[in-house]
Amino acid sequence: QVQLVESGGGLVQPGGSLRLSCRASGSSFGVSAMGWYRQAPGKQREWVATLFPDRTSNYANSVNGRFTISTDSARNTLYLQMNSLKPEDTATYYCRRFQGDLWGQGIQVTVSS
Protein backbone atom coordinates (compact mmCIF):
# COMPACT_ATOMS: atom_id res chain seq x y z
CA GLN A 1 0.00 0.00 0.00
CA VAL A 2 1.36 3.39 -0.99
CA GLN A 3 1.78 5.98 1.73
CA LEU A 4 2.80 9.62 1.38
CA VAL A 5 4.94 11.08 4.15
CA GLU A 6 5.71 14.80 4.34
CA SER A 7 8.74 16.31 6.05
CA GLY A 8 10.67 19.56 6.19
CA GLY A 9 8.19 21.81 7.95
CA GLY A 10 8.89 24.00 10.94
CA LEU A 11 9.17 27.57 12.16
CA VAL A 12 10.73 30.20 9.91
CA GLN A 13 10.92 33.98 9.99
CA PRO A 14 9.13 36.11 7.39
CA GLY A 15 11.22 36.30 4.26
CA GLY A 16 12.81 32.94 4.94
CA SER A 17 12.71 29.67 3.01
CA LEU A 18 11.74 26.07 3.60
CA ARG A 19 11.67 22.99 1.43
CA LEU A 20 8.94 20.45 2.02
CA SER A 21 9.38 16.84 0.92
CA CYS A 22 6.77 14.18 0.27
CA ARG A 23 8.11 10.66 -0.07
CA ALA A 24 6.07 7.77 -1.42
CA SER A 25 6.64 4.54 0.43
CA GLY A 26 5.49 1.20 -0.86
CA SER A 27 5.45 2.25 -4.50
CA SER A 28 6.39 5.03 -6.88
CA PHE A 29 4.29 8.03 -7.83
CA GLY A 30 3.61 6.39 -11.17
CA VAL A 31 2.43 8.71 -13.91
CA SER A 32 -0.01 10.62 -11.74
CA ALA A 33 -0.18 14.34 -11.31
CA MET A 34 0.95 15.41 -7.85
CA GLY A 35 -0.02 18.41 -5.79
CA TRP A 36 0.44 20.42 -2.64
CA TYR A 37 -2.39 21.82 -0.58
CA ARG A 38 -2.56 23.72 2.69
CA GLN A 39 -5.01 24.42 5.46
CA ALA A 40 -4.74 27.30 7.88
CA PRO A 41 -6.55 27.22 11.24
CA GLY A 42 -10.23 27.97 10.82
CA LYS A 43 -10.01 27.90 7.03
CA GLN A 44 -10.77 25.41 4.30
CA ARG A 45 -8.02 23.41 2.67
CA GLU A 46 -6.75 25.22 -0.42
CA TRP A 47 -4.78 24.18 -3.44
CA VAL A 48 -1.20 25.44 -3.69
CA ALA A 49 0.47 23.81 -6.70
CA THR A 50 0.24 20.93 -9.16
CA LEU A 51 2.95 19.07 -11.07
CA PHE A 52 1.71 17.20 -14.13
CA PRO A 53 3.28 14.03 -15.61
CA ASP A 54 4.76 16.10 -18.46
CA ARG A 55 6.59 18.15 -15.81
CA THR A 56 4.49 21.27 -16.37
CA SER A 57 3.17 22.96 -13.26
CA ASN A 58 0.80 25.62 -12.09
CA TYR A 59 0.40 27.58 -8.90
CA ALA A 60 -2.13 29.45 -6.85
CA ASN A 61 -1.86 33.21 -7.35
CA SER A 62 -0.92 33.65 -3.69
CA VAL A 63 2.30 31.61 -4.09
CA ASN A 64 3.16 32.09 -7.77
CA GLY A 65 6.73 33.29 -8.13
CA ARG A 66 7.65 32.28 -4.58
CA PHE A 67 7.00 28.51 -4.48
CA THR A 68 8.33 25.82 -6.81
CA ILE A 69 7.02 22.27 -7.09
CA SER A 70 9.34 19.55 -8.36
CA THR A 71 9.97 15.83 -8.16
CA ASP A 72 12.84 13.38 -7.97
CA SER A 73 11.41 10.24 -9.53
CA ALA A 74 14.43 8.15 -8.61
CA ARG A 75 13.78 8.93 -4.94
CA ASN A 76 9.98 8.83 -5.22
CA THR A 77 9.92 12.27 -3.66
CA LEU A 78 7.91 15.39 -4.36
CA TYR A 79 9.20 18.77 -3.22
CA LEU A 80 7.83 22.22 -2.53
CA GLN A 81 10.49 24.91 -2.35
CA MET A 82 9.03 27.90 -0.52
CA ASN A 83 10.84 31.24 -0.66
CA SER A 84 9.99 34.71 0.59
CA LEU A 85 7.64 33.21 3.13
CA LYS A 86 4.92 35.36 4.66
CA PRO A 87 2.93 34.96 7.88
CA GLU A 88 -0.13 34.16 5.76
CA ASP A 89 1.69 31.06 4.47
CA THR A 90 1.31 29.56 7.94
CA ALA A 91 -0.67 26.34 7.56
CA THR A 92 -0.57 22.58 7.58
CA TYR A 93 0.71 21.46 4.18
CA TYR A 94 -0.41 18.26 2.50
CA CYS A 95 0.84 16.44 -0.56
CA ARG A 96 -1.55 14.59 -2.80
CA ARG A 97 -1.33 11.97 -5.51
CA PHE A 98 -4.25 12.60 -7.82
CA GLN A 99 -4.38 9.00 -8.98
CA GLY A 100 -6.30 7.22 -6.28
CA ASP A 101 -6.75 10.52 -4.41
CA LEU A 102 -4.00 9.68 -1.95
CA TRP A 103 -3.01 12.23 0.73
CA GLY A 104 -0.16 12.61 3.18
CA GLN A 105 -0.71 13.21 6.88
CA GLY A 106 0.29 16.88 6.71
CA ILE A 107 3.22 18.92 7.99
CA GLN A 108 3.09 22.20 9.90
CA VAL A 109 4.70 25.35 8.54
CA THR A 110 4.74 28.43 10.76
CA VAL A 111 5.99 31.79 9.52
CA SER A 112 6.53 34.16 12.40
CA SER A 113 9.07 36.52 13.89
Characterize the structure shown.
This protein is mainly β. It is built from no helices and eleven strands. Strands 2, 4, 5, 6, 9, 10 and 11 form a seven-stranded mixed β-sheet that branches. A four-stranded antiparallel β-sheet has the order 1-3-8-7, with no helix packed on it. The radius of gyration is 13 Å and the shape is globular.
Keywords, separated by commas or semicolons:
globular, mainly beta, 113 residues, four-stranded antiparallel beta sheet, seven-stranded mixed beta sheet
Write the layout of secondary structure elements.
Blueprint lengths: L2 E5 L2 E3 L5 E8 L8 E6 L6 E6 L5 E3 L7 E6 L4 E6 L8 E7 L4 E2 L3 E5 L2
Parallel strand pairs: 2-11
Antiparallel strand pairs: 1-3, 3-8, 4-5, 4-9, 5-6, 7-8, 9-10, 9-11
Beta-strand residue percentage: over 45%
Helix content: under 10%
> What Rg do the Cα atoms give?
13 Å
First-residue to last-residue Cα separation: 40 Å
Order of helices and strands: EEEEEEEEEEE
> How many DSSP E strands?
11
Class computed from helices, strands and strand pairing: mainly beta
Summarize the structure.
This protein has 113 residues and is mainly beta. Helices cover 0% and strands 50% of the residues. Strands 2, 4, 5, 6, 9, 10 and 11 form a seven-stranded mixed sheet that branches. A four-stranded antiparallel sheet has the order 1-3-8-7, with no helix packed on it.
